[in-house]
Amino acid sequence: MVTVTHPSTADSVESPAGRRRGAEVARVLVALALAWLVPLAAHPLRLDALLPLLVLAGTMAIQRGATGLVDRFVVACAQLFGAACVFGLGTTLWPGHLHPTLVTGVALSVLVIIAGATGRMRFDVRHLRKIRRPADILLAVAVAGVSLVALVPYAARDLGGRLGLPLAGEDIARHYLLYDAIGRTGGYLFMRPSALRPYVPDEELNGIANYPQGLHFAYAVLGRFVSSTTGDISADAAVDVMMWLLIGTFLLLALAVLWAVRRLAGPGTSPARLLPVLLLAGAWLVLGDPVTVLSRGYPNELAGLACAAVLTAIVVRPLTRVGEQTATVALLLVGLSFSYPLFLPFGGLAALWWIRRARLWRFWWGWLTAALVALVAAVGPLTAATASSGSQLLLNGTARVVDRPATVGLLVLAVVAVLVRRGLRAPSHRAALFALAVAAGMAGGLGLYQTVTLGHPVYYFDKLLHLLIVVCLCALGGLVRFAPGLGVALRVAVALPIVAALAVAGGEWHTAPVAPGVKLALGKDRGSPEAARDALLMTRMFPGGGAVSVDLMGSPWRNWSATLGAAALQHNYRYFPAWSGLLYPGAAGRASTMDDLDRLVRESPVPVRFFVHDPEASLLVVDGSNPRRPNVKPGQPLPVAFGDPAAPTNVAAARALAAKYPTKVQVVYATPANP
């Protein structure tokens, strides 16, 4: 007897679940192909500058722990910065370096794989409706207002004016050097310091090569996308891109702080209650001490402050998905490590508070994530320690001294915001109070150490005060619970006197007329625009360098800053330190004589170009131990004729050396550029 077996319906017809899995795999494969085809097509069309926006949009699309477009945008920016810092470790080793097609292809492929693995290949358009929430609209208006106030002083200036603001603080030249060298070599310089050796003096190689470079790497990547679109890779174009990226970093800091204020205010906060708090926080950003971090040219600190603001917000009010919260906290810690390790202890303690609250130790992947984050986040402190001296925290710098009374007042407001109306009953307010305590404790501890050691606080104390200010501004969101019966007009009326008090004065003890942001907006804070224009002029005339360019065209500080700027732009910073001692008018000890200038020319390993213009300009003296120079009152600009009347002027000294060393010295008669 023969038995005939018929195939079952389940065997002959594919199940709906199987069809869905097949369709999902097909979508992933198509998306992976597009991840490479789109950047391949964009490059010959010179549309590379649009590709970072595509990566950002893709990162926003796969978010599920953040609601609304504003939340997704902020979280995506934070995640991408941390991911870029990690990405740089691999980029340094691969042969393609920073080519836009390769960078975009890898980034989009990673996003497609994450979306496929988590089932997020489809974007729910219903999330777009959440942008219409009144609180989000108010936040967007506040960010636009802060951006306008911050952008106008820079947009109204030419490139020399924009560059001149931070050039007065000196550090911007080394930031440009790192940004430019990473763009040229394609990766982190601490992993191959030999690539930096042609650009810096041997005695500074270790310090510069091991400086935290996460933000410089991100700038170099974005700069490559811009140059691939414009086709302009001149020094002018490169430094202009870096300046706008610096300004953009401050705008992202402002967005992060204002977003944190809204987030800490709570999801049900009405615009009427939120408006005066955003007004106060926004005014503090563009009028008070935070804007000085921009004007003095500290891009790494701006990035570190932005990471701290986002971390504070999501530790106080975590994202709705534990996985996304864990990944975002981890990437923010990496961002802090690779941008500004001084703030990493704050980030680590804030993260531990959330880990305890979320009881993350219950999951095996939580331990694995902690180990990986500890390993990668250790890079920043370890390299910074290699670059630093044993007394690094005692060094002074060029940062503006923070307004002490205003900062104390802000701290009091922040504590009130956390404690008002039995605030500590809420876990979010306990987390906010912990963040305030950590930031205040770090600043107070360092200030005490510096006072005991030096007699007064210096540089890094003010940096930690910047961190405290940002955390306090984030915590102001709790003020929406204060006096719930007040209307919007009365709330704004309460906030306006505080804003006015902030605007009318500044300085260490809040006694200097008008706030730093007001000075910047009115053009009173100019920096060294003439020096920046001289540096750009020298670089345009001799873009390839080939010789050390020495500015002798004008006043002493202008000449020193311009020579520094040109050294970075012409890739000749390696030869600058020797000339710095001769040109620096504030140097202690001997003033420079004609013999000193002759010796520098004679010992220079490369030719020397002296740029001259003003026949009255002078810096040399006859007797270095007993210099005769004009008496200048403290705070007054130094005169162009700063040298001894009996010593040669700058023009005469340059001509004499050109006659003595005709094959080594060139005198360039230049006309400084006007704004």
Could you give a short description of this structure?
With 675 residues, the chain is mainly α. It is 63% helix and 3% strand.
Helix/strand layout:
Elements: H1 9-12, H2 16-42, H3 51-61, H4 68-91, H5 100-118, H6 134-155, H7 159-167, H8 171-185, H9 202-209, H10 214-230, H11 235-265, H12 271-287, H13 290-295, H14 299-316, H15 322-339, H16 344-358, H17 364-377, H18 379-387, H19 404-419, H20 427-454, H21 459-475, H22 488-504, E1 505-506, E2 512-513, H23 516-522, H24 529-541, E3 548-551, H25 556-569, H26 576-583, H27 594-603, E4 608-612, H28 650-660, E5 665-669
Parallel strand pairs: 3-4, 4-5
Antiparallel strand pairs: 1-2
Helix pairs in contact: 2-5, 3-4, 3-5, 4-10, 4-15, 6-11, 6-12, 6-23, 7-24, 8-10, 8-25, 10-11, 11-12, 11-14, 11-21, 12-22, 14-15, 14-16, 14-21, 15-16, 15-17, 16-20, 19-20, 19-21, 20-21, 24-25, 25-26
Salient structural properties:
675 residues, mainly alpha, 3 domains, three-stranded parallel β-sheet, two-stranded antiparallel sheet, 63% helix, globular
How would you characterize this protein structure?
There is one protein chain. This protein is mostly helical and 675 residues long. It folds into three domains: 23-130, no CATH class; 136-317 and 346-519, no CATH class; 531-669, no CATH class. The protein has helices spanning 9-12, 16-42, 51-61, 68-91, 100-118, 134-155, 159-167, 171-185, 202-209, 214-230, 235-265, 271-287, 290-295, 299-316, 322-339, 344-358, 364-377, 379-387, 404-419, 427-454, 459-475, 488-504, 516-522, 529-541, 556-569, 576-583, 594-603, 650-660, and strands at 505-506, 512-513, 548-551, 608-612, 665-669. The protein has a three-stranded parallel β-sheet, sandwiched between helices. It has a two-stranded antiparallel sheet with strand order 1-2. The model is unreliable at 7-12 (pLDDT under 50). Keywords: Membrane, Transmembrane, Transmembrane helix. The chain crosses the membrane at residues 25-43, 49-66, 73-94, 100-117, 137-156, 241-261, 273-293, 329-355, 367-386, 406-424, 431-452, 464-482, 489-509.
